[in-house]
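Dear colleague,

As promised, here are the two records you asked about, laid out in our usual form so they can be pasted straight into your sheet.

NAME FIELD: protein one
SEQUENCE, THEN STRUCTURE:
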Amino acid sequence: MTTYLLAGGGTAGHVNPLLAVADGLRSRDADAAVLVLGTAEGLESRLVPARGYELLVVDKVPFPRRPDAQAARFPLRFRRAVAQVRDHIRAHGVDVVVGFGGYASAPAYVAARRERIPFVVHEANARPGLANVLGARRAAATGLAFAGTPLRGGEVVGMPLRREVIELDRAAARDEAAAHFGLDAARPVLLVFGGSLGAQRLNDALADSWGDVLAAGWQLLHVTGERSDLADPGVPGYALVRYVDRMDLAFAVADLIVSRSGAATVSEISALGIPALYVPYSVGNGEQRLNAATAVAAGAAKLLDDATFDGDAVRRIVVPLLGDPDRLAAMSAAASEVGTRSGTENLIALVDRAIASV
């Protein structure tokens, strides 16, 4: 029996691919022991036990960004975290570590190396985080979600995706999806969303231009985010919702998407072959723009600038695209070529190779 330790957490971008791989390992071999390493503060502390996996806890030790008191305490705290992971590895007879970035991964990579067991890195973003940059230098294998991610020895495997996305038959689910949102399955739908908390820039732009979308003969499914107070005009063909717990149904009914370009979002949209207009979030280290680069280069998507995305941009750029079915079809075909639904299996194959190399 093989014992796997999957390390990562903090955000959905780390936890969701980790859980997809955990499910893939469990589905392939019911006797495999799949454990998860995370922090007590991260999203994993809730999602991992809810999915039925044991969560082993390690201290959250952020890398210092400036020479201050926290930086002075970092070496001791990091050594303690590594020791915690080594104890977990020994207590559970771990055979391989798979890291997805985040606070739990860095000590896991060091602990695996000191315990002389292989570890595998998966990087979800086109611009890698520091933990994975350091881990990839000694990893048995490194899997990338996007081509061009600058990690040593990186191989493109794609993104491990949620089962409901991998198994989605958009055509077969369209009638159910349209009924779920109160839309007409026979008419095209523009899906706009900005994540669970929403995106103010996207919300403001559509608040000013939803009428133009409807006038173009399209319907609008607008996921505003839970914190939004945007008023619902209550008109036919415009479904305004705060939160969607069935994103598979939202994807099933979408003929074009306007969204941010987080790694999982881009990977899911491309895997499903849906044309997209991405408005990368301008705060951060620029990874959202890079995440969309492969899809844009393939002709599957177009990048729009956050600073200038408003109602006029929707009328000038989005609405003309709604009236160009040939271009939408070409974008959809390109998305199907650049996306993959086999990220989970591809990453597990890297893990198998790492184990076999010992």
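NAME FIELD: protein two
SEQUENCE, THEN STRUCTURE:
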Amino acid sequence: MSVAKVIEVNASSTTSIEEAVKHGLAKTAETVKGIKGVWVNEIKAETDDKGAIVEWRVNLRITFVVE
């Protein structure tokens, strides 16, 4: 039998949504072992005054096995 835990993480990137997700996972993996999956819970874009996207932000729900 195994037990899993879910944590929420916010991450951002000036490049893309995918890069924001990768950054959030990589940073979390520095201290959390046994990551098994991720849900992209929310996506947000910050814009400048002209409406151009300057930063992508994601809210992630990361699942890992508790040992």
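A couple of things worth noting about protein two: Residues 3-66 form a domain with the Dodecin subunit-like fold (CATH 3.30.1660.10). Residues 17-29 form the longest helix (13 residues).

Best,
R.
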